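Please fill in the sequence for the structure shown.

STRUCTURE ENCODING:
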């Protein structure tokens, strides 16, 4: 059924389809009976709970950052059975993002290319939205992660200030944080993955975290394009400052081994590639981190997860939790249920 619907949706602009589909779903979920029916159909059956960072996750399958950038669809995503949703990337000031078109499908490769550019409503608006959600009598039980970044106009030597603003503003409303310095779509952002820059950002957040009554886990999201030496630097820093975990991995700038034609790729241009082509490299990095640290650093695996077998591969490599994004687009709303059946 979804394959038929997908063939129709894939005839239209990807970004338009994204918002159209989610807004229609939001409308449907306003009818209590419809929402209950969707939950009955899509939520994983049985006890799938998994504890990490002292947080009880309903299940191990989450939705990666970039799908619900502005925390508008948490109620609906919970109905589809997601164990956790990472909102954002959130920046201090609102951003329109890069020029459209900026999201592209590569059906032959089961992949996407995006150059969204951290388009979001800004931290103040998003925090207020989350506050209302948290204050509802019928609270959303889904675990919420806050993926935070810097504004495009902020110079790299002041980037730590942007992360600090987002961290302090969202602290009361999210369950964990992910520091995003690995998106390829903000000029110069990946330079912040160098050890000195990372140290400044992460230690600033650790200091701020200690000032709150309840500390929230802080994770770092890394790129699949890092060298082994760069990954070692990240690992050493994470162990040194007692970082809570890593998210591996973000999108890649590589275009190796794609079936999509060279001409089409040239027409699309720059952006981060996600989906099946990232699967192997993402698993390699998860396995490397787990082996190098003897499992001391929890890893959330992201990249090329379309099925239970894919998720199982990541977990066997050392991941504690898994995230989908591109897989959700290609496999449809049953993806969480299907993965949970196998893991």
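FILLED IN BY: designer on duty
SEQUENCE:
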């Amino acid at each position: 059924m979804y394959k038929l619907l997908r063939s129709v949706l894939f005839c239209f602009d990807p970004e338009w389809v994204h918002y159209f589909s989610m807004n229609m779903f939001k409308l449907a979920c306003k009818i209590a009976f419809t929402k209950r029916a969707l939950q009955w159909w899509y939520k994983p059956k049985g006890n799938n709970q998994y504890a990490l960072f002292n947080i009880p996750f309903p299940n191990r399958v989450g939705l990666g950052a970039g799908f619900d950038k502005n925390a508008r669809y948490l109620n609906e995503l919970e109905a589809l059975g997601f164990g956790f949703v990472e909102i954002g990337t959130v920046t201090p000031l609102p951003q329109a993002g890069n020029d459209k078109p900026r999201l592209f499908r590569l059906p032959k490769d089961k992949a996407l290319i995006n150059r969204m550019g951290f388009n979001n409503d800004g931290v103040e608006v998003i925090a207020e939205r989350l506050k209302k959600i948290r204050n509802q009598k019928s609270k959303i039980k889904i675990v919420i992660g806050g993926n935070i970044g810097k504004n495009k106009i902020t110079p790299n030597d002041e980037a730590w200030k942007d992360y600090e603003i987002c961290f302090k503003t969202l602290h009361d409303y999210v369950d964990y944080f992910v520091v995003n310095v690995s998106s390829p779509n903000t000029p110069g952002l990946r330079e912040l993955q160098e050890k000195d820059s990372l140290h400044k950002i992460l230690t600033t957040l650790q200091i701020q975290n200690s000032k709150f009554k309840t500390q929230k886990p802080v994770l770092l999201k890394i790129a699949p394009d890092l060298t082994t030496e760069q990954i070692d630097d990240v690992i050493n820093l994470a162990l040194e400052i007692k970082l809570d975990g890593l998210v591996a991995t973000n999108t890649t700038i590589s275009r190796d081994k794609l079936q999509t034609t060279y001409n089409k790729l040239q027409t699309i241009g720059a952006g981060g590639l996600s989906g099946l082509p990232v699967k192997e490299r993402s698993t390699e990095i998860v396995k490397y981190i787990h082996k190098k640290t003897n499992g001391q650093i929890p890893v959330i695996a992201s990249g090329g997860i379309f099925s239970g077998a894919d998720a199982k591969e990541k977990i066997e490599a050392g991941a504690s939790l898994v995230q989908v994004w591109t897989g959700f687009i290609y496999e449809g709303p049953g993806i969480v249920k299907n993965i949970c059946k196998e893991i």
